Structures are given as C-alpha cells and as structure tokens.
Amino acid sequence: MRPRTSSHEIASHSRREFLSISAHLLAGGFALQPFTAAFSQATRADRNVRITGIEVFTVNVTQRTNWIILRLNTNVGISGYGEASLGGRAELAELHEFYAMVDGRSPFAVAEYRAQGRSRAAAGGREIATAFSAIEQALWDLSGKILDAPFYDLVGGKLRDSLAVYANINRATVERTPAGFAETAQRAVADGFNAIKAAPFDGFPALTAPAAEIARAKELGIACVYAMREAVGEDVAIKIDAHSFFDVELAIEVAGELERARLSWLEEPVAPTQTQDTKLIHDAISQTLAGGEFLFGMEGFWPLCENRAVDIIMPDVKHCGGLMEATHIAAIAQAVDVRVSPHNPSGPISTAASVALCATLPNFEILEYQWGEAEWRGTLVEPGENIEGGAISSNGRPGFGIDLNERVLEAHRL
Ligand SMILES: [Mg+2]
C-alpha cells in the first residue's frame, strides 16, 4: 500500500507554497496587482453564473449494472457531474424534481438547495434520496470548476493525496463457489489490490427455510471465505458483506466460525436500521463491524454512532445526501470515535466525488472500488482513474477533477 502523506510532507509542501508566494510579493509591489485583478474578475463572473440545463446519461455496464450520470450545464459553458446509480435501474425520474430546485440559480447555492430539498429527501425512499444527492454532487463539481479549485479546497483543504481502496470482487465472481471466489480474489490481488471484499452469502435462504437448507448455505459461504484466505495468503485484508441475510443468533454463530479467517471487517449481518440487533452482534463478536450504506443523513447514522453499534460507518455520496451531508455524518462519527469507509460500488463519477470527499475526512479508513466489472470503466472519465498499489489518487484538478470522455460514453450509452 502506498504510504499516506505524512504531516511532515504536508508541512514542507505548505512551506514551499508560502515561500513561493512571498518571493512573488517581494519581487515588486506590482506583483500584487495582477493577482487582485484576476480575483475580482473571477468574483464578477461567479455572481453571474446560472444553471441552465440538465442532461442524464445511462451507461450500461453489465446485465446487472447501469450507471446513471447527470450533467448540469451553465450559461458560462462550464458543466458539473453527479452520479445517481441504483443497481440495474436505467432511469431516475426524481432527478428532474430536484433539478427544478436549482434551475436558473447559482451553482454556489448549495446550502439553499439543501434547505429546500433535504426534508423531502429524508422522508422519501432510496430513489428520492439518490436524486437529491446527485444534484448536490453536481453543484460542488460546478462550484470547484468555476472557482478553478478542487472540491477539497472549498471546504478546508485535503489531509492526504492518496487514499486506500479495496476491491469489491463480488460482481466479478460469476462462479459462486469456493474455487470461483478464490480465483477472483487472486486476480484482484494480482491487479495490485491488497484489500478485497466479497458477499459469499448472497442467495442465502429466508430464515424460515428448513434448517438443513440454512446449514448448507452457511457452510458454502464459510467455505468461500476460507478459500479466498488460502488463495491470497495472510497479508491481504478480506472484508465480508453479509447483505443482511442473518439474525443475531446466526450472525454470532457465523462470525465465530469465521474467526480463523481473520477478516478485516464483517458488514451488515442484519439491516443497519436494526440498531439494537447490530449492537448485540457488535458486542458479541471479535470482528470489526461495518455498515450503513443506504442510510440517509446525520439522523440515519446517529443511532449506529450513539450506541457504538458499529466500528465503521459506510455513507455513500450517492444516497446519504451528498458531500456536505457526508462531511456532517463523518463529524458525528468522529465525536464517538467511529471511522468512515464510504460505500462506493459505483461508477467513476461517484468514485471521483468520493475521492474528493475522503481527502478531507480526519476519520477516513478506506474507500470501496468496484473491481472487474468493465475493463473500460476508468476511461469513461478524463483524466482516467489513477489506481496503483492499493491506493487511488486525486489528480488535483478543479471540482472532482474529471470530465466525461464522450467517445467512451457514446460506446456504452443505453
Ligand atoms: Mg454492503
């Protein structure tokens, strides 16, 4: 894994910048004037920027996955992106409901948009929350691009240049057997990842099914975990997502049987809205417990945090309310020493937004990366995704740092 930027490196970088600015100022009083002129030009332009239109693109990834991408356009020719993907959904009509709240307005009015749309998003279902969050993302991307600053510089700057990522290998695993999981795990590790996640209990029967059927499904899932551990060795982190198939008793039993696999976390053995059950499991097992991928807002995450029912929360910028909400969610988690690993089994727009967000979070742990779904995924955006040695780096460009590659978009649009 690439080492995170040390505080020493950050300090020397800032010192270099300070010395460089000081040198400019010392070179002559006139050096100050172009800077002031450029600044006032920018602020004049900013006041006049208005949102003029929305475009929605559906990108077909696999038989099971589409990415829904939206582009907000402005009267100054600058565009910003957001992602509203929801599994296999091909469209999300709710985007237009929330677009109406920003049409003709300034892209800087994020707080105003949140004040107007947040209660509707909090009260609605997953589609409503996702549409609200996608427009919020695009407002930030636009704001950064107009001000010529990366997202993180609009909210206090970054804490790190590169972020740890783990490869979600679940969708790439077609053969749902120990050998199938072992094979994809090995390929992801060969591709440079040193942390992976899978959901080998997918397809688990209802808990009312005959005991023998449940026992068979349990044994198969456990065998898949141990096959992955054997395939990748001891140094690769393995995370297991249980997709809420269990109850408290079964979760504790399975966690006990998985102890020798030394998981780096167990995710959502029961639904994360079942706070008390999650807490019971948390206190009974030895593994780190993570969850919360579809929860909305601070109010959605607070019960897990307040009860310390999980060790790691997993807000998703596509569903939790957007980047500002995710920042607030991370802050309440920090207050109770809970870490943040954003959920992101998503396309490259959500990934770029998540990278911009995670660069700012003090309690960031690791970001999810959807691995092995489509070999062209990294080229849908320009510049392409920069992943190396188990880490993803920000490219330092304005907003989320990316534009759509129109040629790749046209090749895969629905
Ligand atoms: Mg999950």
CATH topology of the largest domain: TIM Barrel
Poorly predicted parts: 1-39
How many beta-strand runs? Answer: 15
Distance between the termini: 37 Å
Provide the fold topology.
Elements: H1 7-26, H2 32-48, E1 51-60, E2 66-74, E3 79-83, H3 94-99, H4 110-123, H5 126-147, H6 151-154, E4 162-168, H7 178-190, E5 195-198, H8 211-232, E6 237-241, H9 248-257, E7 265-267, H10 275-284, E8 289-291, H11 297-306, E9 312-313, H12 323-335, E10 339-340, H13 348-358, E11 367-370, E12 381-382, E13 387-388, E14 391-393, E15 403-404, H14 406-412
Parallel strand pairs: 4-5, 4-11, 5-6, 6-7, 7-8, 8-9, 9-10
Antiparallel strand pairs: 1-2, 2-3, 4-14, 12-15, 13-14
Helix pairs in contact: 4-5, 7-8, 9-10, 11-12
Residues 241, 267-268, 293 line the site of magnesium ion.
Q: Overview of this structure, please?
A:
With 414 residues, the protein is an alpha/beta fold. The protein folds into 2 domains: 48-149, Enolase-like, N-terminal domain (Enolase-like, domain 1); 153-404, Enolase-like C-terminal domain (TIM Barrel), CATH 3.20.20.120. Helices cover 43% and strands 15% of the residues. The chain has 14 helices and 15 strands. The protein has helices at residues 7-26, 32-48, 94-99, 110-123, 126-147, 151-154, 178-190, 211-232, 248-257, 275-284, 297-306, 323-335, 348-358, 406-412, and strands at 51-60, 66-74, 79-83, 162-168, 195-198, 237-241, 265-267, 289-291, 312-313, 339-340, 367-370, 381-382, 387-388, 391-393, 403-404. Strands 4, 5, 6, 7, 8, 9, 10, 11, 13 and 14 form a 10-stranded mixed β-sheet that branches. A 3-stranded antiparallel β-sheet has the order 1-2-3. A two-stranded antiparallel sheet has the order 12-15. Strand 7, helix 10 (275-284) and strand 8 (289-291) form a beta-alpha-beta unit. Helix 9 (248-257) runs parallel beside helix 10 and helix 11 (297-306) runs parallel beside helix 12. The longest helix is centred in the N-terminal third of the chain and has 22 residues, at 126-147. The radius of gyration is 22 Å and the shape is globular. The two termini are 37 Å apart. The model is unreliable at 1-39 (pLDDT under 50). The chain binds magnesium ion. Residues 241, 267-268, 293 line the site of magnesium ion. Magnesium ion binds at residues 241, 267-268, 293.
